[in-house]
Amino acid sequence: AMEQEAEIVQELGSLHGIPLYKSFIEGWPRVKAFQARPDDVLISTYPKSGTTWLSEIMDMIYHDGDVEKCRRDAIYNRVPFLELKAPGEMSGIEQLESTPSPRLVKTHLPVQLLPTSFWEKDCKIIYMARNPKDVAISYYYFHRMAKIHQDPGTKAEFLENFMAGKVPYGSWYDHVRGWWEKKQQKKILYLFYEDMKKDPRQEVQKILQFLGKELAEGIVDRILHHTSFQEMKKNPAANYETMLPILMDHSISPFLRKGVSGDWKNHFTVAQNERFDQHYQKLMAGSDLHFQMEV
Ligand code: A3P
């Protein structure tokens, strides 16, 4: 058991300057060479930005709101994680190879590291971004419950590391800005977690339009109900509770933790918030990308 546990925690290495779990870096050559199919749809996010939520919505759309079909497997198998590589587990690439088309693919890669095949095949991409204060808090709790991570230290320490980009997948600022700029030239639907909280129906309609798909009002209703926080939290196919307890400890913090915008207010001190705002303004200067810090 000791040896197994020792393999679960992953130190961070550097992938072309981006901090990433060492096991993921070992698997990188096959990720880089990944052959996308033209009808693959990519779900891209910085971690803790609503990836699982968007994935469940997409799988429901793909199955015309059939709740039973969307219980066929856990969300992390229904939407394979492209760059996932961990000892003793099937890699994301292996999972994708055995997934029939049309596939949904999840990634957290920054735009400059996306395997070129996605661009060559002109795949549709849906990016979801979330305000960095909520991402930082969500990421802190995720570091504690998901055992691939080293101890994140105190909240204050983690916040410093987050701002400095010294966390898996690197700088949030570079990630959201990089994908935002790419949207000028490529088929990318750029969504916000906060908009999805405010008006999920409108956001689902945007997704349908982007996919060129129409669904009856009643089916959209069912999708919205099934993908609400409360429903997903009690759904074993969506809440990650089927993962091995040695990989995720939901008693420390559940994967579906709070699911709101503005929870950072319960965690940031006034001083931390001021410092964060200053840093944010510096790093986001000159961009027309704006975030709602609460809804
Ligand atoms: P919190 O930790 O703030 O609760 P990801 O899937 O990218 O890892 O993101 C996880 C975050 O999305 C968690 O945020 C989780 O609770 C939230 N989330 C998951 N499903 C959700 C839903 N249906 N509605 C709102 N938030 C959801």
Automatic annotation (TrEMBL):
Locations listed in the record: Cytoplasm
Keyword Lipid biosynthesis: no
One GO CC term on file: cytoplasm
Source organism superkingdom: Eukaryota
GO MF annotation terms: sulfotransferase activity
Coiled-coil features, chain-numbered ranges: none
Keyword set includes Metal-binding: no
UniProt keyword terms in alphabetical order: Cytoplasm, Transferase
Enzyme Commission number: 2.8.2.-
Domain Sulfotransferase: 38-287
Similarity section: Belongs to the sulfotransferase 1 family.
Name used for this protein in its record: Sulfotransferase
Lineage: Eukaryota, Metazoa, Chordata, Craniata, Vertebrata
Full protein segment contained here: 98 to 392 of 392
